[in-house]
Amino acid sequence: xxxxxxxxxxxxxxxxxxxxxxxxxxxxxxxxxxxxxxxxxxxxxxxxxxxxxxxxxxxxxxxxxxxxxxxxxxxxxxxxxxxxxxxxxxxxxxxxxxxxxxxxxxxxxxxxxxxxxxxxxxxxxxxxxxxxxxxxxxxxxxxxxxxxxxxxxxxxxxxxxxxxxxxxxxxxxxxxxxxxxxxxxxxxxxxxxxxxxxxxxxxxxxxxxxxxxxxxxxxxxxxxxxxxxxxxxxxxxxxxxxxxxxxxxxxxxxxxxxxxxxx
Length: 263
Hints:
Layout: E1 8-10, H1 11-25, H2 36-42, E2 51-53, H3 56-71, E3 90-96, E4 101-105, E5 110-114, H4 124-143, E6 149-154, H5 157-165, H6 170-186, E7 189-194, H7 201-207, H8 211-217, E8 222-224
Parallel strand pairs: 3-6, 5-8, 6-7
Antiparallel strand pairs: 1-2, 3-4, 4-5
Keywords: Membrane, Transmembrane, Transmembrane helix
InterPro entries: Hepadnavirus_pol/RT
Transmembrane segments: 20-39
């Protein structure tokens, strides 16, 4: 074992920790984002006794996981995970561009619009995911506890992938954790679905601050630009040059998870 206070652990230690976390995820499946940094640190590693540094991101993710797990009652009802988006009580359409974020509530002609946070500029996937997260926060602020089932439409397949798998690269994981915080706090049920960009007319216009176009597409639309997306801890890594798919929950073939012992 490494000396007390060491900031490095073996690959075996990371795998064993991941095994314990996955065991707990059987009853707390919303907490998958807690493994993002661990997967990122161990990806591609094969030497069991090879030392890996403990990153600040891993500490944040695992602390977040532990805090939620401690408060959990350990009961997971399967029927709560499987519902038809057609049964949604709230429908939201989202879009983002390098100029802004926009979303609106279908059926009530209320829209929200904001400039991108400076830390997320030039990263289109981060902005798309942040817009979905922001919409979820506004659902909590405005519509809880009246409605429980929410469907959010986005024209970003990568964003759908992130929220469907509950897994993301560390660069986007803070967004995902913020959304999960809302789901756990409110017991909201969420589906994030894909819509073709050409059909996402109103929010495309909102995200580009083409408000005249948005009003033409949705007469009577009220646009609130006084709210801001949730404030998050943004990693300092440089934004990717292209969109990146999220880190799937499936463990890579070269990463061996050590399950907890029965004893």
